[in-house]
Amino acid sequence: xxxxxxxxxxxxxxxxxxxxxxxxxxxxxxxxxxxxxxxxxxxxxxxxxxxxxxxxxxxxxxxxxxxxxxxxxxxxxxxxxxxxxxxxxxxxxxxxxxxxxxxxxxxxxxxxxxxxxxxxxxxxxxxxxxxxxxxxxxxxxxxxxxxxxxxxxxxxxxxxxxxxxxxxxxxxxxxxxxxxxxxxxxxxxxxxxxxxxxxxxxxxxxxxxxxxxxxxxxxxxxxxxxxxxxxxxxxxxxxxxxxxxxxxxxxxxxxxxxxx
Length: 260
Ligand code: CAA
Hints:
Blueprint: E1 7-12, E2 15-20, H1 31-46, E3 52-56, E4 61-63, H2 68-71, H3 76-81, H4 90-93, E5 98-102, E6 105-107, H5 109-116, E7 119-123, E8 127-129, H6 143-151, H7 153-162, E9 165-167, H8 168-174, E10 179-181, H9 188-200, H10 204-216, H11 222-236, H12 240-250
Helix pairs in contact: 5-6, 6-7, 10-11
The chain binds acetoacetyl-coenzyme A (CAA).
């Protein structure tokens, strides 16, 4: 695969693992880093050997936000002309599931990037926040929108207006994260990989359809969402994996997916 300089990639049991790797800058999300991240996601999405993706950072920071040093001198016209940050959404169009394994700071664009992922696991010392207000700006990659949907209006307003950070436990209570991994034997990355490997053993068409339906629940009315789900459910009966999955159940054996 391509040689990257701002991220690291490795593969393990059907799982593609992407590590943001600008530790000295707390993984500040520079344009070169985001370009590499987009490329890595696209490669894994195309790769038939990859069934799920884990996105992680360092122990100290998942990502401390957009790169302030890069943004400092930007003008409105530069932002506007090059559609600054608009290309950051590759995670949301990746069709295989993406799990964020968050240790340390997930701030600003870092929190927003984690929220673009399908599942967030947090280490006990993870901290989430939207501190843009302290820089004289506001969140620009979905913070005011996805945080509301994740933790509700009051908590989202509090975080975006004060710039304060939320602990992993608060994020769990609010529903932003699916699991907090306590200090101990296994790390948040190991737990995320374990879950990704579990998903990697399922039928890929089913996995992709679930992901698409759940994500559409944010865009559609309930009636439209239920209609979409019903049509995908019907479509699942066109897959070989449906015959295999139900056949295996009735014959009391493990299914052997062809992902078709
Ligand atoms: N951009 C660029 N560099 C950053 C950075 C960022 N977002 N966050 C940290 N760094 C750099 C620091 O400048 C510092 O570099 P130097 O060693 O060259 O001085 C290095 O990373 C280590 O950071 P600190 O010394 O500040 O570490 P700390 O442990 O004292 O503090 C922190 C950690 C509280 C996370 C602090 O670094 C911080 O507040 N960072 C900025 C967080 C922020 O405001 N994020 C929002 C960015 S705007 C955005 O993301 C817009 C959007 O919606 C897309």
